[in-house]
Protein: NAD(P)-dependent oxidoreductase
Amino acid sequence: MHVGFIGLGAMGRAMAGRLVAAGHQVTVWNRSPEPVAELVKQGARPADGIAEVLRSDVVVSMLANDAAVESLLLDEDALAAATTDLHVNMATISPALAKRAAELHGKHGIGYVAAPVLGRPEAAAGGNLNILAAGSDALLDRAAPLFDAMGRHTYRLGEQPQLANVAKVSANFMLFSAVEAFAEAATLAEASGLAPADLLEVLTGSIFPGPIYSGYGSMIVAGRYEPAAFKLALALKDVNLALDTAADAKVPLPLGSLLRDALLESIAHGDGERDGAAIAETARRHANLTERRS
Amino acid sequence: MHVGFIGLGAMGRAMAGRLVAAGHQVTVWNRSPEPVAELVKQGARPADGIAEVLRSDVVVSMLANDAAVESLLLDEDALAAATTDLHVNMATISPALAKRAAELHGKHGIGYVAAPVLGRPEAAAGGNLNILAAGSDALLDRAAPLFDAMGRHTYRLGEQPQLANVAKVSANFMLFSAVEAFAEAATLAEASGLAPADLLEVLTGSIFPGPIYSGYGSMIVAGRYEPAAFKLALALKDVNLALDTAADAKVPLPLGSLLRDALLESIAHGDGERDGAAIAETARRHANLTERRS
Amino acid sequence: MHVGFIGLGAMGRAMAGRLVAAGHQVTVWNRSPEPVAELVKQGARPADGIAEVLRSDVVVSMLANDAAVESLLLDEDALAAATTDLHVNMATISPALAKRAAELHGKHGIGYVAAPVLGRPEAAAGGNLNILAAGSDALLDRAAPLFDAMGRHTYRLGEQPQLANVAKVSANFMLFSAVEAFAEAATLAEASGLAPADLLEVLTGSIFPGPIYSGYGSMIVAGRYEPAAFKLALALKDVNLALDTAADAKVPLPLGSLLRDALLESIAHGDGERDGAAIAETARRHANLTERRS
Amino acid sequence: MHVGFIGLGAMGRAMAGRLVAAGHQVTVWNRSPEPVAELVKQGARPADGIAEVLRSDVVVSMLANDAAVESLLLDEDALAAATTDLHVNMATISPALAKRAAELHGKHGIGYVAAPVLGRPEAAAGGNLNILAAGSDALLDRAAPLFDAMGRHTYRLGEQPQLANVAKVSANFMLFSAVEAFAEAATLAEASGLAPADLLEVLTGSIFPGPIYSGYGSMIVAGRYEPAAFKLALALKDVNLALDTAADAKVPLPLGSLLRDALLESIAHGDGERDGAAIAETARRHANLTERRS
Structure:
């Protein structure tokens, strides 16, 4: 299949690489040139501009946020000139924008699939992403070979594309809820004389297996938040997405509100560029724990 | 080893049965007679009273709460008359009471180990509990054969017995934090058109494996909270234990406060005897979701 | 002074009427014609359009929200054509927009004063508003006769116009915080057997005099939220203004988050068009109080 | 009337003084002797012990908390020997204890009135307390001359004594809710460039008159929390009273939970002995405001 790929950040680069490796003909575009050069070395073709990418059989995009999607891909003129018949948007964007994007693509006769992913760059490089996909069955069938090259499993979440974004937003909300819960528990433990590392070992060995508790938990126990795998400022962006999506549906989200307040406090204390696990420092500050005993 | 066992509730019964099956000589006592008869059939000996149990080599207790432990086992006269030299208290009690119990036992020359567990009655019956143990190494070594008969793994959490209770209280706090997080996410999903069952499948298949999300999540998705595996009223008891332990250590626990408010609301709506997963109905009520689409 | 007045809602109408009554020559504009007719009867002159109003000595505006101010008054062409040298914006808008408005006016050589008010339409009709004003002293001096006609007191809050909006946003946040506090206390009282009306009488007669507790409190005690003096949906708008302003300054606002969640719940239950005092019904629902005893 | 008075703390001393000044024959008792000497100088008689006080026509008590009331005045033997027929308990205690006290007094044929007060020692000295009274009308009539000597107004809140304590607990909860609201608003203002003192002036001059906002607000604006008029540790005690009373009635109190967390944080930072207004420092710390601009 001739695939156009837009957005070669840490995730997009690894995902496009998987498509090339699977034998697809991939044309890539990125705002900055370095990642393009990297993909070309792997066998991709560079595009002159987005217009060229939009002439591929299928377009896959992995941009940073709503604003980037809106300015680069929801341009009426660009869509009118596009000859592709399927756009698979894998970015983490708001359900509201996904809905609007689907309608706009439909108006121009282009199929639209939302397929945000769960997983970090290493998982993307290994083809081990979990792909949350929504759109018509026919379109999902068409995209299936691409998903198979990039992920370990594809979840089909319904005909309306934005439902995949609802799932992604919910998952990220739960991720940081789990981090906050461990942060509070670790602070309670530490202030009561129990080493947070001991608590973490108990939890991950028993009721809380899986990558979230062990991954974020280790950073919290060590008080080491660099390098950032998931920047705290982006965690705030995602929690705000959850709160906005909930507000649109008239749903109070008290745990989301609590996360937002804690993340704002973290940013006020200079942790915006550190890993989101640094939210744990708010709980420690509230309890006036100054020296760390791990 | 000659083991005395006090407290044959759903958990204690299964644990005492494991000790009998492992070849220990077990003398049992319980407030009501039925579970005693059951254990006797399996090969245990019935005790005339607690005094008799306290003459075993090692005493294991699994009582319901602080009040039961206090009235039955922290009696100065009973402890003075006891000839046992080790009491292994496996109940979920407050760290504050555990600390007092350890001091009182010490005064009477009796070793004290705290060893609360993670796991449900089925896990206890299969010898698959996770045991959170704290006390001196010598005492933990002595109790090790018993732990091996009852659990799949024993975590040693330090010399001070109450640290095991801190771990247990923290774990239960995190358990209900996870339930609340999924409850809010499921409500956000449902109100946005995504089936909570689809969200749960994504989560348990990707970032949140393990028994908590799948077990409680299934109940929430189905809106079925009976039979209760962990009663909501007991969840409130445990969250209050966490809040009290935190307050003793001057630690604010905002997520614990949020859980307490939600659990109180659940009880006001008549859910105290249903499973703790019913806390999810508060989020649905707040969003005015009346008919369930699972 | 020749005054142009834009925005004749319930508040604007009463304020413009005060200016006419004080002997100023007032030219008025409003999107719908009825309030214009009413003011003309009182002695104002109708304007053909906003452009005409912007040729007055001083322009006073009292529009509904950020969007209205942005579309009607921050138009570059309109400002370029304006001959007025002072715009007094009395609407409740975001500090961020006020800052931008001040800069834009400055660019076109027009003075800008922010002067939102505290008080309801009755207070406006009686000239009893509290006016929160900010801008350069010279401009505030120029506007003083207008303020004197409309208010009982003018607070000068600094040279930067947006500071007046910060004060207004903070005041409205505190207003609904007080309402929520009484709502919770009244629920606690009612569920404990004390009539909320008795509690209100104690509070307003002792530590909480003033219009907020007695006004909102009476509605809550009676469970009567119509007619709406301050619509609940607008209360949510204002709380969101406070949260956004706080987020811009990296300030967590936990009470603001709590209010937002409660207001969203109220809207989910159909109370958006009732008075903001209806937020109290969330506390009653949480406690499962169904029949009212006042 | 022959009045016995128990408990001569800052409040009790002033209140007993008012009774002496009004011409009543007052017998006083206090744990420490100095305040007794002071009252004797004013014309009171010292009692040998509590038993003697309990032989007065009417006994008024003003003790520190539940524990003091329980140990000194709910002793079965003391009540059996008492010849008084009315006990007016003016302390801030839990409604649950008040209920139990009323029953116990009834069993011994002694009337019981709950009459906690709103007001500080200066108000007590001037006879300007607000008295929240509950009990049978006949008993309230008997106590009326005493209330008239001590307060500016007596509110009658029903036949069941504990209702007065519900009112008092609710009032103190609202008091600290107002303090927290201003603390957050002042932080929002300060971080946005508006002097908290300016915000306070606006609020107290317009929608929030009365002693709470001006009194606590001034301390917050100045960042001066000593001397303490109402110690922060006692504020936590009172908020816990509200939370416990609410829990007994199955009422979630989210604002109460928020206050509890903030007060615990304050205590963790060493502010327990400063005035409760110091809760405001938590909001400032969360926003990382270090230098004060008032």
In short: The first helix of chain D runs from residue 10 to 21. Chain D has a mean pLDDT of 97. The first strand of chain D starts at residue 2 and ends at 6. The radius of gyration of chain D is 20 Å.
